[in-house]
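Please produce the structure of this protein holding adenosine-5'-diphosphate.
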Amino acid sequence: GNPALSPSKPAHMSTSPQHALRVLFVTSECTPFAMTGGLGDVSGALPVALREQGLDVRVVLPLYRSVDRGQLEELPGTLLVPTWDGAASARVWRGWLRAGTPVYFIDYPGYFDRPLIYGPNGGAYGDNLVRFAFLSRAAVELTRFLRWTPAVIHANDWQTALVPVYLDAFERAWPLSACASVLTIHNIGFQGVFPVEDVVFTGLTNGSSRGIEHWGSLNLLKAGIERATAVTTVSPSYAREIQTSQFGSGLQEDLRARASDLTGILNGIDTVVWDPRSDPHLPAHFDERSFEAKRECKAALQREAGLSERDDVPLLGVITRLTHQKGMDVLARALPRLFELDVQMVLLGAGDPEIEQSFVEAARSRPDRLRAWVGGYDNGLSHRIEAASDFLLMPSRYEPCGLNQMYSLRYGTLPIARATGGLDDTIEQYDERTGAGTGFKFHDLTPTTLFDVTGWAVSTWYDRPQHIRQMRARGMMKDFSWSAAARTYEQLYVAASRRHRAPHAVDSVRALP
Ligand code: ADP
Ligand code: GLC
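Below is the modeled complex.
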């Protein structure tokens, strides 16, 4: 079975450890229940790591159609959610992540019982503003429904960026007046921008909507940045980059205004789900001392991909959203030259229809070089590709953190990546004199540079196998677990909650007769 799933609460775990710091983690994706990308991985793992550290962390997620209700339990009672259109009645279900981490599902079929999370073909449903405003407001109300007051509500990306705004606008009374908010930016390219007249759908008024407007539109992420107690993003490099006009997507000024409250905390990975020694998706298991079985994984994938079963040719893997952010347009243009090299490539991805089409065509014209699984999402296959490949390509234009390069390093697969954001923070450049490093990084995002750096990696693979072996072992031994990040988040929660409470403490002193 899936080791991420733990459908019933472990008997020794209590839902509310006494005196533990309480954190409500609000998200629009959470693996293994519902995900489209890295936000899902993070939401399924960080709360568990915090819980293992003794915090009372609970997760809130919509009850999407894709969530398997068989493992959930419906809680008694009705959750009343104030909306722009009056109060709405939702139901609440509860499931579990590992370590006895509760996940509360907001059941409101009108908004969430749909085939997809955000909309068809990478696009958006027309009512996404209403849907995610509802989720944000429901999360705040849930604390009353549970009679459980968190010290911090942690929101993620634009979908839940209204949480800090709602807390600030509507929760001036005890006990939620003492609740701090943290907003994590996983990707500044998505800000939740809507026509300004749609503000009515948020339930906010002229008096309460401070900060929500940006250049004549609504901008939910910007409002959250302005009104959260603390703002984080998912790597130290990205925290610096988004304060510049090159990477800030128009919010650089707003981020600079909050520079002293903005921290970059590098994501971890789930080292139970991503473990080459026990991964149930793999045909064979391996570790940093024995790579033999990695060969078996490679041979099995070559068969699955219909590529010739050769150990003497480097296998390049790609697992990604096929978008401009990921540099996939540039990779597509580099393919003709790349395929002059003796290499094989397997690609798994979905996204931009034009980019999808270019890989479908490339695979059709060079079936000896490329197998492309395009248009679908396949978790098991993504594990098999990580394990089988010699190199993983990540030519991202920008990358807030990136998880695949860490999965790769753990699976003895060397990343070939652009030196940006979290990629730059997690990959050490190869040094051909000493054999040091864990991957191959480059700066200019052009087909020529991508070809050159891949050529560098491939020639190292042929000419210096000893260096490749050392780099693999080095990468596999790196600690990418969540524990370091979880400790930093805990410190941040404590500081945010102290800082948030300070003005109120002063008020109550003043109120004494
Ligand atoms: P992002 O969140 O920007 O897409 P990340 O590297 O943080 O990038 O996370 C991407 C996650 O989604 C990884 O777990 C990756 O393996 C997974 N993924 C992306 N596309 C697919 C796909 N088509 N099938 C399976 N997994 C995918
Ligand atoms: C976003 C980013 C990715 C990051 C993920 C999780 O989707 O694009 O770089 O790893 O969020 O934080």
